[in-house]
Every structure is written in C-alpha cells, then in structure tokens.
Amino acid sequence: MLYHVQGHVQSLKAAGVEWLPRGVPWAPAAHVQEPARVKAAPALESSASTPPVDDTVSTEAASGLNLEHVEQRRQALHVLAEEVKTCTRCPELASTRTQTVFAHGEPGVELCFIGEAPGADEDAQGLPFVGAAGQLLNKIINACGMKREDVYICNILKCRPPGNRTPLPNEAACCRGFLERQLELVQPRFIVALGSCAAQNLLNTTTPLGKMRGRFHDYKGIPVVVTYHPAYLLPHRNPDKKKDVWEDMKMLLTRMGKPIPQK
After folding, report:
1. Cys staple from 199: which of 122, 183, 193, 256, with CB 3.0 to 4.6 Å?
2. pLDDT tens-digit profile of 198-234?
3. CB-neighbour burial class of residue 256 (10 A; exposed 0-12, middle 13-18, buried 19+)
4. How many alpha carbons fall within 13 Å on the CB side of residue 136?
5. Where are the beta strands (DSSP E) in 147-258?
6. How much of the chain is in helix, strand and coil states, percent to nearest 5?
7. Virtual CA dihedral for 27, 28, 33, 39, nearest 10 degrees?
8. Distance (Å, rounded) from C-alpha 248 to C-alpha 213?
9. Terminal alpha carbon distance of the chain
10. How is residue 236 annotated by DSSP?
C-alpha cells in the first residue's frame, strides 16, 4: 500500500501539484473480514526493485482507488486555478483583465476543446465560451451527441487580451506551463483545437489551419483534431464553413467509436 501511495505522490509532483488537503490519519482496522478478490491490473503489480506484494485487490478497493484518483486530480486542478488567479507574468493582461478564465469541465472526460483566449463575456463571467461563439460551440457539441457537461473546455490564454486581439507569442509562452499541467490532470483521450491560434500554439507549429484540417495530429500521445474557431463561423463572418467543421467532427466521432448523429 505504501508503494502505491508513494508512486501516486510522485505522479502528482510530476504534474506540478505541490499541495493537497490533508486527510484523516489512517489507522489499521482490527478483525475486518477480507473481501472477495480479483486480479489487479498490470499497473498495480509490484516491480522487481520492490519487495513482493500480494498481486490481488478487492473489487471494492479498486473502485475506491479510481474514484480517489479522480478526486485528487479535481483538487489539484482547483489548486492550479488558484495559482492562475494570481499570475502577473504578462503585465498588460494582468492589469486589464477582470478575472482569469481557467476552464469549464471535470477531469477524466473523453474530449477537451481548446480555444484561443477569453473574450469580453468570458472575462466578465469567468468561464470559457459563454458568448456568441460559446453558444455555437454548444450547438457543435450537441450535434455530436454530447452535452457541454460531457467535455472539458479551456483556452491557450487564461486572460483576455485587450480588445480581443490575437495572443502574442510571449503571452502564449507564459501560459504554456499552466495549459500543460491542466491537460496532464484532466487526461482527455481526444483534443479539438479551435482555430489556428490554438492549433499552432498547442502543436508548436506554424502550419496554416487549412493544411492541418482533415487529419489527426499528436499532443503527447493524445489525438488532436484541428478545426475552425466557432467565432469564425458566426453569421457576419463565414457561416458556410460550418459544413467543414461538421466533417471534422464526424472524423473525430469515428475515431472515438461514437455514432454519427443524423442532422
């Protein structure tokens, strides 16, 4: 048990977690009837460098460990969000923002959407994609047979650039560590990069969006789909591009093994 705890602590440290709430001290229970056992997953087996341990674990205990792990990641994300709130690495952004905009969603979801930066509505409410572009993103998510609560939504920047301008390279670089730690804790199975700014910063490339669409990219082993930002699809801009976004979403759903809803 100590080996598993130490390993988990090390994994949290590697993800950038430096503090967690203190729990109730553990004390061994006496004369507890041993529950039914099942074979443990390979990841829980002992290594050659550690003393041999029993390679079985109760079904109830295995389930509890999984729930505990998700809760610890949720707490770690909360700690990270609090750290972001006090960030002043970009003086202009720190002095002009109403508040930081961290994310919307829970760890352990299958899909994560990453946008460019908060806008005026997001800066006011403290949540990503709540303005006109956000309403369109909700429709895209619903068209895929999911709900907003089923996905994780964040941005390259956690602060609104003045006048909604495009994030500067040094601003994206300052926020990069926050984004990477976020994704390590959320652990999505798939990512959708919304717009060229999000795609180029996430994937560290200068390739135009048009050349990145239609195929999968890789971010630390996670498949990434690149598509247009919802703001680009608004009626006063390029609503005809919605069909291209739907093609990108169908490609994603097929890879995810999900049915493609009929429009």
Report:
1. 193
2. 999 999 999 999 999 999 999 999 999 999 999 999 9
3. middle
4. 18
5. 151-155, 190-194, 216-219, 222-227
6. 50, 10, 40
7. 100
8. 7
9. 51
10. T
pLDDT at 67: 66
Own/partner pairs, 29-34, CB within 8 angstroms, 24+ separation: 34/58
Please state the pTM of the whole predicted model. Answer: 0.76
CB distance 103 to 183 below 8 Å: no
Quick one: angle between helices 59-85 and 2-14, nearest 10? 30
Q: Where are the chain's structural domains?
A: 2-18+31-75, 98-256
Say how many C-beta atoms besides its own lie within 10 A of residue 9's C-beta: 13
Predicted pLDDT of residue 66: 67
Structure tokens at 124: 């006011």
Confidence of residue 147 (pLDDT cuts 50, 70, 90): very high
For 25, the token pair is: 């001290």
Q: Which tokens belong to 125?
A: 């409410």
Cα separation, 172 vs 197, whole angstroms:
10
Homologous superfamily (CATH) of 98-256 is Uracil-DNA glycosylase-like domain (3.40.470.10)
Q: How far is CA 256 from CA 41, 191, 223, 259, in A?
A: 23, 11, 10, 9
Token pair in block for residue 218: 């890789």
